[in-house]
Amino acid sequence: MKLSDFDYALPPALIAQYPAAARGASRLLHLDGRSGELADRQFRDLPGLLRAGDVLVMNDTRVIKARLTGHKESGGQVEVLIERVLDRERALAQVRASKTPRAGSRLMLSQGAVAQVLGRAGEFFELRFLDCTDVFALLERAGSVPLPPYITHAADPSDDARYQTVYAQTPGAVAAPTAGLHFDDAMLATLQANGVRLAWITLHVGAGTFQPVRVENLDEHTMHAEWYELPPATVDAIAAARAAGGRVVAVGTTSLRALESAAAAGELRAGSAETRLFILPGYRFRVVDRLLTNFHLPRSTLMMLVSAFAGVDNIRRAYAHAVAKRYRFFSYGDAMLIERADQ
Question: What pTM was estimated for this model as a whole?
């Protein structure tokens, strides 16, 4: 298939610039990938669409304040977007500047932070933060929430809270696992009371999730790498759900990619690894039965993933329906619950 197969027309007014007034107040489009049927619902209807014995797999990554601004020693302005923290002093980052900073130069950043450029690492720069013993603490003090490029306002204190899931635990993401933003503590308690089991993975979402696909022939696309960890308890929870006739529900494409990556050899295995899994129509899913997700950018790898999961024609119809019904799109937008198409 080609990149243009995953395009659609989206009025800019439908790109959500702010979250709903309260978590759980969003709409929910329910798509049955087997029949193609669509139903307009509210996110608060979710407990009624799950059953006892199902397992909900959620990404507990925590978004870090990965955006820093400042200037080079020579005076030119810079913007730094951390991609990955490497250790207590070093990180990989995108650096935007009028001229490429040279190895050995220093970046004078927010709140007195100083980073030395160690060199290039592929598309990123390796930085060492001087007089720093904890990069995460430095970012919390000096950085700002890295809102996606299609959100036009600067991050403010409300984004600090709402661009983060209520169950976020492990710092490292530079973009939120946005399907999880709809859940509040009351919803999670209701699901558990109904016999739905909650299980966890960690996948640190990288800035590459927003990078456009630049080739028309998708066989030529190289997927960005992301680190994930799948705990043994989650493998056990999925096995128990299967044994009891329950369904595996991935909350977000990040959870789905982690689970499918961990089952690439055929059997779901606990552990941590890098994944470059690129899911296109024709992919055979091994683990996930249902997917809870937001609406995705045209011509993106995530559009390809949901098309593989639900069927290309089903997704085209669902997105046309969502545009016509004026659903809210992208990170702060509404949600979809997708039943996997027959394989």
Answer: 0.95
